[in-house]
Every structure is written in structure tokens, then in C-alpha cells.
Q: What sequence folds into this?
């Protein structure tokens, strides 16, 4: 029997492939097609796992995963995965792209300006933490709404970066893109740090810190190597799209995982703020 969710993905893919085309801009047509298809697959996967019957029937999914507060292993896995994926854009903007610019003869001064633009949002992380401590959607947990929002913003900025397809000479455009992507990444990092403080007990914090540093270090190393290879063989836009794909996978994980039992998975799903969250 055909599975409705997969049939929907195939139909949407066919429509996009036939409809999304701009004469003379083939690379942008392909970027849009691949990005929308990735988003469609993510939507279908989330619907299946959340037991949504919009694709024809209800399914037994993973919406009953334990909350992060209930499972030490899930907390460690979440911290590792989130920092692993966060390391990808870091490796791209702080190592791979500057190396690519230098290899193509861009001056040290211009490369320094690009790196400064990528660094500035991380200095503003203080303000991100200040805002998150005072504004939150408690029905989804104190940090999860911020995490999901920052991941969506990160995926959008990476998609825009791929769409713009900047070249070696477009230093100003690259700098603006670097600032935008790292702005979203800095907000995400502030939310992850807040999540760890809220949910990790004192006796687990040393091990949790190990998972954080390991995830970020491994993610940065793999992101640097992968980005450098893709930029050299395919192009910078492809590297942006690969980063976006990893972000969408992590976004799916966040959508399916609660901070504490009884909270909402999404703003429109059943649930309420937990007593522990309200007490903070």
C-alpha cells in the first residue's frame, strides 16, 4: 500500500520541478527547488511523527518521547547535537570562507572585515540572553520556543545566502550574510545555554559540559572540511544548502522534544506550562 506522506512529497516535488524556473538563472532555480523540497519533506516527517492525519491516516509516532527533564541521555544527546550543528556555520564562516577568499587573492584587510562582521553578533549575545530571560512562551517551555525560532531564522538566512550566490569579489554581500547567519546562530547559542542551566542538574554539569565542547568542536571541524570541499568542487551556494539541511534535521528533533512533561510541542498543540517552569 502506498504511504500518503511519501506520495504527497513526490507530488509537491513534481510541481516544484515544473513550476520553479527562472530563465537565465538555472542555479537559483535549482536552489529554490531543493530548498522547498527539503522543507516539504520536513513538514511531512513532522506530521507523521506527531500523529497528524492530514496526509490520509493517523500513525503511531514519536510524540511520546520523554521530556528533556526526564532523561539524562536525552539531555546529553540534545546538547551534543545542538552544538554539533551549531559548529557547522562556525566552520563555514570563520575558516572555510576566509580560506577560499585568501586562495582567490582577496586582501588580508578585506578578509579581516568579513571575519569582523561574522564575529559581531556573538558580542551581542548578552542582549539575546537578557531578552530570553524576560520574554518566553512558557507553554512550550522557557527556552524551546526561542530555540525553534532561532533555528527557523538560521535556515532562512542560509537559504537567502544560497539564493544570492555571492562571488569572491562580493565582500560586502558576504559580510552582510555572515552577520545575518551568525546573528541567528548567536541567539540559538544563548537559548541552548539557558536550556542547559534550566534542565541539567548540578551533578551532571561536568559531563554535560563535555558533550557541549565535544559537539561544538567536532561540528566545527567537520563543517570546515565539508564546506571547503563543497566550495571548491560545487560552489558556495551548495555549502549554504548543506548547512541548511542539517539545521532542518535538528529543527525536527526540537519540534518532537519537550522540555518538561505536559508542555506543548507546538503553539497550537495541547499542553500547558509545567509547575517547575512557572516557578522559575
A:
Amino acid at each position: 500500500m502506498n504511504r500518503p506522506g511519501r506520495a504527497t512529497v513526490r507530488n509537491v516535488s513534481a510541481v516544484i520541478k515544473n513550476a520553479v524556473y527562472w530563465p537565465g538563472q538555472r542555479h537559483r532555480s535549482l536552489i529554490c527547488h531543493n530548498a522547498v523540497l527539503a522543507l516539504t519533506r520536513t513538514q511531512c516527517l513532522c506530521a507523521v511523527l506527531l500523529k497528524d492525519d492530514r496526509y490520509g491516516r493517523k500513525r503511531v509516532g514519536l510524540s511520546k518521547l520523554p521530556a528533556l527533564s526526564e532523561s539524562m541521555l536525552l539531555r546529553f544527546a540534545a546538547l551534543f547535537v545542538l552544538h554539533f550543528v551549531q559548529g557547522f556555520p562556525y566552520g563555514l564562516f570563520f575558516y572555510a570562507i576566509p580560506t577560499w577568499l585568501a586562495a582567490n587573492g582577496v586582501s588580508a584587510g578585506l578578509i579581516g572585515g568579513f571575519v569582523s562582521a561574522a564575529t559581531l553578533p556573538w558580542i551581542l549575545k548578552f542582549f539575546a540572553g537578557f531578552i530570553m530571560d524576560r520574554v518566553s512562551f512558557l507553554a512550550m517551555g522557557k527556552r524551546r520556543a526561542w530555540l525553534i525560532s532561532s533555528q527557523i531564522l538560521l535556515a532562512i538566512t542560509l537559504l537567502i545566502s544560497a539564493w544570492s550566490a555571492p562571488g569572491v569579489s562580493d565582500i560586502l554581500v558576504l559580510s552582510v550574510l555572515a552577520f545575518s547567519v551568525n546573528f541567528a546562530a548567536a541567539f540559538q547559542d544563548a537559548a541552548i545555554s539557558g536550556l542547559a542551566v534550566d534542565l541539567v542538574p548540578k551533578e551532571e554539569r561536568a559531563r554535560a559540559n563535555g558533550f557541549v565542547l565535544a559537539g561544538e568542536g567536532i561540528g566545527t571541524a567537520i563543517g570546515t572540511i565539508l564546506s571547503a570541499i563543497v566550495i571548491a568542487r560545487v560552489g558556495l551556494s551548495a555549502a549554504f544548502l548543506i548547512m541548511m539541511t542539517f539545521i532542518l534535521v535538528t529543527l525536527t528533533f526540537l519540534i518532537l522534544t519537550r522540555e518538561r512533561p505536559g508542555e506543548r510541542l507546538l503553539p497550537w498543540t495541547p499542553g500547558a506550562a509545567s509547575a517547575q517552569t512557572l516557578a522559575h
User: Anything to note?
Assistant: Residues 101 and 168 are 6 Å apart (CA to CA).
